[in-house]
Amino acid sequence: MNCLQCGAPLTPNDVVCGNCGAVIDVTRSAPSRPIRAVAPTGRRFHLSSTALLILIFSCGLIALITAAIVGGVAVGLQDREINRRAETDKFYQEGLANVTAGKLLLAKADFEYVLQLNPNYPGAGEQLAQIQARLTIQPTPTSSSLTNALDQLYQTAQTAYQSQKWAEAIDTLTQVRAIDSSFQKDQVSQMLYTAALTYGLELLKQDRLEEGVSYLDQAAFIKALPAEAALQSQYAKMYLTARGYWNADWETAITRFNELYAIAPGYKDVFTRLVEAHIQYGDERVRASDSCTAQKQYQDAIKLRPDARLQTKLDTATQSCLTATPGIITGTLQINGLFAGRLAVPIFDAAGSRILVVNAGNPTPFTAAVGDQPDLHRTAPTMLYRAGGSGIELVELADGKSRSIAPAGADSPSFSPDGSRVVYALQGHLYVVNIKANTAPIDLGAGSSPTWGSKDLIAYSGCDAGNVCGIMIRNPDKSDPPMRLTGSANDIPTTWSPDGFNISYYSNVTGNYELFFVNTAGGVQQVTKGSGNSLAGAWGPDGAHIAFLSDRDGTWSVYLAKYDGTEATKIAIAPQAANGVGQRLSWVP
Prior knowledge:
There is one protein chain. By secondary structure, the protein is of the alpha+beta class. It folds into 3 domains: 81-238, no CATH class; 250-323, Alpha Horseshoe (Serine Threonine Protein Phosphatase 5, Tetratricopeptide repeat); 328-588, Neuraminidase (6 Propeller). Helices cover 39% and strands 23% of the residues. The chain has helices spanning 26-29, 49-100, 104-117, 124-137, 146-162, 166-179, 185-205, 209-222, 227-244, 250-263, 270-287, 291-304, 308-324; strands at residues 342-349, 352-359, 362-369, 372-376, 382-387, 391-396, 402-406, 411-415, 421-426, 429-434, 442-446, 448-452, 458-463, 469-474, 483-484, 492-496, 502-507, 514-519, 524-526, 534-539, 545-550, 557-562, 569-573, 586-588. Strands 3-2-1-24 form a 4-stranded antiparallel beta sheet, with no helix packed on it. The chain has a 4-stranded antiparallel beta sheet with strand order 4-5-6-7, with no helix packed on it. Helix 2 (49-100) packs across helix 3 (104-117), helix 11 runs antiparallel to helix 12 (291-304) and helix 12 (291-304) runs antiparallel to helix 13.
């Protein structure tokens, strides 16, 4: 049997091509297993051949359904929120289309469904209120009076429009469309666009943001908004979304206000709210006896606005975090079996996310930061990590001082070989920033999950010019096109081997997530096999071992194994949020 993509020879047990990394179509090559019927002792029960075939088919169908359910749960949990947002956006746009077409009953149903999915969706409540008002006063002329009714409504709309009574003009023009969408079509569209645009901007100036957004959306559906109006609409939507999490989810509120603050720091009270959200979240974590997270929030607030009273809170939280560190996770957590170097492990439990660092020879770890996705510098006592709501941070392990490297939403940070630069992912693109010179980030183009190797190559998840996806490698300092090494969009790279020739990655091409590594020349080898998931592989300093996360025994834990997956040893329990996908370990000398 040969690979359909590159022609390389395969064995019946291969799930990926060892030459090009393409996923093998197992439905074509998997041999059928003979079934041997064994009669039970005692009374013999005979099945006809037809009944036996039906029974075999039924069992197979049940097995397929069960496998589909088990395999779909992890993916479903990961994608549910994305799908919900897409569904909400789809029906909101459909509602606007029905408003524009005058189909108010359909639009009403659309916006009711949007609010069912997301009660805080910006503008949806106002759109629904407007539609309900219009339906209440909408005339229902008979066929004989239809023309007169349209003429009268159109004259009424013109009068309101000329008097700049925008709400009345919009309501009346919408009624005209509801009766006959072809009546004075161009004039009605132009008047409706201008009225909705003007009134929407006026409402934003009056801080009636939800109403303003709804009218601007209505105008935008007819014709593109002017640049400044589109920007104001975007700011208002981001502000409303962030405010919707106020007092309900401080961490998400911080993330959303950070996103708006990054592009419009002077917009309304976004600065004040961002500072207050950090303080409120810190206070909340203090009440939950989570002083380390509180410390991080107070630090972020003071960076934005120094305050003597807040400094007192920070000092108290810092002292409490230092004294509480040994018992943060399990009280007496030990990581036994690390034979070389330093290992950073992300943990997420009831107290939140933590990064623990342990040194060979001392099984008791220390809490290095509040966050996840760690990347230890190979020679300096520093670490990159993703801080919830704050983007990418760099922390000095000696004194705990940290500084921001990338904005909220950024993830997967990785040091360059000399430690002077950092690569990270943000909104589907890769960026490189010089942390020594503090220069502006450089956009490398589309990609995710980057990791920087010792040969100055960056590996990441992406697609080539032919839109075939997998693990890509490129030199960020050269204009050469990237090279694809594997053939599945679900291949996620994590670390390079010390010699810079192999990349550890994990993928769910077998059903569960398993570890693989791929050589820069293109050869692929599967590392782990069996029940559960294995991911976040980190090459050891010796180049012969790998650390990884796995839930193979039902609990997320850290394992050490040889590079081929043999001699796997569990060294610590490491609880993870959700299914652990997206996490990383870091193992350096």
